[in-house]
UniProtKB/TrEMBL annotation:
This is FACT complex subunit SSRP1. Residues 474-496 have a biased composition (Acidic residues). One of its GO terms (cellular component) is nucleolus. It comes from Leiothrix lutea. PANTHER family: FACT COMPLEX SUBUNIT SSRP1 (PTHR45849). Belongs to the SSRP1 family. The gene is Ssrp1.
């Protein structure tokens, strides 16, 4: 037989609500983990007194009773699982799993039995319904009547608020059955009564939620917040977790109390009680108990007289009374050295604390997200500016939390933290894609001045200028990064060239008109290397030699793996910073060695560039010759058509002989018509031929 049994989608009945979770049975006992709150109920095997199997609304249920009177109910089992559970109880707990069915007769009279913290209304031997007395908020009596009031259940649409029992009078002297019934209920009910003196009182504490200043009175079973307008009584049983979080300014502390069920004020629910303390506030505290009682109840965790910081005293007292651990931030450190990240959630600015087992955001509204309920996280660019990013968290229930306006300097630290906790990252993709997106954030840091980065940029500009000079004759085009303003430059360049062409034809204009085209012609001259850019945007030639690297880049490529091995887990941003520091601290002799290597690489590049340029010029000459041949063929066709028109128009040889001695600017009236017809023919052929002169017409007539 297996040592453990596990069941998913099991529901635990707590104060009238069904909380889903996971149930695990082992040799040591029974463990149930609530999926919503993460709270764990642990029942030791030695404490189990009885196990009952019965049919309920959600299928079949398991009721466990302990020796100290506690009752635990779990629903959602299948009928086929009874044999497996029964054998497990016999083998490991030495208990017989009894089968008991509920009475469904519909009678409203019967017998009330009090067993532990449970009120059972039975008809004969079968139970009709059961009421956990911890659900009772108030018990009042009347004539032969007892009224039970219950805590409101916020998770249910409809809640049972009141039940009345009619108690018939008996003939027994000296015992009132109504009062006896009420005392049995009140002894186990969750009724908060401020009887007796408080253990201690903290005056005028600043509370962020609910907002205001409150006196906190510490009682043995509950916490009493007394303010000017509202009072709250918080049982210690409703406290889930305690958090002690340092503020980013290192001068204040948050003390957060997580509550389930929450405290209520009208329609508002407060799931978290957040107190804000200054680190400079000190207090001397004296407990309202004698030393023997303090030692017996708290077992050394508290003493009668204590002194220290106010936040330390409050957290110490709460830890002892609630008997829960205080959660503090782990080893996460942000860009500024703080253990939190400044961000915004729902249009309110606050602080996000990465913890060892989850995230908590304070303070408006406070949010606590455990790692085990996170489906994935996502890093997204900020919607308004590139100087920040958004951190999105989606839970397994489909709830999405977006923490926006996080400074991009925090990206590396937060990404490494999420990666170390093995959370699913939605936009991670492949490993290469992840590194690429990470580099994009890291390289966009413009605030930090890096001397070696500036030097690399200067060397890159020098290489670009050399490459441009060498490519002017060969037609090689260098790579250029995308510039949004480049299109406007191209438009201006076309306008300038048109302006210079029109100005060259207007030489007879005034001096004022001559000055403006001269300026524009000068601008065109400065931009001469870029005139061929629109024609050569086909892409860079893959056969072209690669540019040489600088001395620093050669050293970085050779030393990158050594730096990674010396600093395991170093991020890309920190690696580049570390490399800059090492290069700066390097001796002059070692740098000269890398400078020589860079100089050799530059010479090899220039040599390869010359050979590449020669081959490119030969290819250019062959293409020019081919183009000239094509132009001759087209021109020959146009000449044939022109000769036919010349012979047709030359009918008077005497006139042609006399016109042959006139200047070229003179055009006779007879020749104008023939010139126009020739012009039309030449335009139809697509070849540009000059208008025939008088000499040509004379030779044609001969």
């Amino acid at each position: 037989m297996a040592d453990t049994l596990e069941f998913n989608e099991i529901y635990q009945e707590v104060k009238g609500s069904m909380n889903d979770g996971r149930l695990r049975l082992s040799r040591q006992g029974v463990i149930f983990k609530n999926s919503k709150t993460g709270k764990v109920d642990n029942i030791q095997a030695s404490e189990l007194a009885e196990g009952v199997w019965r049919r309920v609304a959600l299928g079949h249920g398991l009721k466990l009773l302990t020796k100290n009177g506690h009752v635990y109910k779990y629903d959602g089992f299948r009928e086929s699982e009874f044999d497996k559970l029964s054998d497990f109880f016999k083998a490991h707990y030495c208990l017989e799993l009894a089968e008991k069915d509920l009475c469904v007769k519909g009678w409203n009279w019967g017998t009330v039995r009090f067993g532990g913290q449970l009120l059972s209304f039975d008809i004969g031997e079968q139970p009709v319904f059961e009421i956990p007395l911890s659900n009772v908020s108030q018990c009042t009596t009347g004539k032969n009547e007892v009224t039970l009031e219950f805590h409101q259940n916020d998770d249910a649409e409809v809640s049972l608020m009141e039940v009345r029992f009619y108690v018939p009078p008996t003939q027994e002297d000296g015992v009132d059955p109504v009062e006896a019934f009420a005392q049995n209920v009140l002894s186990k009910a969750d009724v908060i009564q401020a009887t007796g003196d408080a253990i201690c009182i903290f005056r005028e504490l600043q509370c962020l939620t609910p907002r205001g200043r409150y006196d906190i009175r510490i009682y043995p079973t509950f916490l009493h917040l007394h303010g000017k307008t509202f009072d709250y009584k918080i049982p210690y049983t409703t406290v889930l977790r305690l958090f002690l979080l340092p503020h980013k300014d290192q001068r204040q502390m948050f003390f957060v109390i997580s509550l389930d069920p929450p405290i209520k004020q009208g329609q508002t629910r407060y799931h978290f009680l957040i107190l804000l303390f200054s680190k400079d506030e000190d207090i001397s505290l004296t407990l309202n108990m004698n030393e023997e009682e303090v030692e017996k109840r708290f077992e050394g965790r508290l003493t009668k007289n204590m002194s220290g910081s106010l936040y330390e005293m409050v957290s110490r007292v709460m830890k002892a009374l609630v008997n829960r651990k205080i959660t503090v931030p782990g080893n996460f450190q942000g860009h500024s050295g703080a253990q939190c990240i400044t961000c915004s959630y729902k249009a309110s600015s606050g602080l996000l604390y990465p913890l060892e087992r989850g995230f908590i955001y304070v303070h408006k509204p406070p949010v606590h997200i455990r790692f085990d309920e996170i489906s994935f996280v996502n890093f997204a660019r900020g919607t308004t500016t590139t100087r920040s990013f958004d951190f999105e968290i989606e839970t397994k229930q489909g709830t999405q939390y977006t923490f926006s306006s996080i400074e991009r300097e925090e990206y590396g630290k937060l990404f490494d933290f999420v990666n170390a906790k093995k959370l699913n990252i939605k936009n991670r993709g492949l490993k290469e894609g992840m590194k690429q997106s990470y580099d994009e954030y890291a390289d966009s840091d413009e605030d930090q001045h890096d001397a070696y980065l500036e030097r690399m940029k200067e060397e890159g500009k020098i290489r670009e200028e050399n490459a441009n000079d060498s490519s002017d004759g060969s037609g090689e085009e260098t790579d250029e990064s995308f510039n949004p303003g480049e299109e406007d430059d191209d438009v201006a360049e076309e306008f300038d060239s048109n302006a210079s062409a029109s100005s060259s034809s207007g030489d007879g204009d005034s001096d004022r008109d001559d000055k403006k085209p001269a300026k524009k012609a000068k601008i065109v001259k400065d931009r001469k290397p870029r005139k061929k850019q629109p024609e050569s945007k086909k892409g860079k030639d893959p056969n072209a030699p690669k540019r040489p690297m600088s001395a620093y880049m050669l050293w970085l490529n050779a030393s990158r793996e050594k730096i990674k091995s010396d600093h395991p887990g170093i991020s890309i941003t920190d690696l580049s910073k570390k490399a800059g520091e090492l290069w700066k601290a390097m001796s002059k002799e070692k740098k000269e060695e890398w400078d020589r290597k860079a100089e050799d690489a530059r010479r090899d590049y220039e040599k390869a560039m010359k050979e590449y340029s020669k081959g490119d010029s030969h290819r250019g000459e062959r293409s020019k010759k081919k183009k000239k041949k094509q132009e001759k063929v087209v021109k020959g066709k146009g000449d044939k058509k022109g000769t036919t028109s010349k012979s047709a128009s030359s009918k008077s040889p005497a006139k042609g002989m006399s016109d042959s001695f006139k200047s070229k600017e003179f055009v006779s009236s007879d020749e104008s018509s023939s010139a126009e017809s020739k012009k039309e023919d030449s335009e139809d052929e697509g070849a540009a031929s000059p208008p025939p002169s008088s000499e040509d017409s004379a030779s044609g007539s001969d």
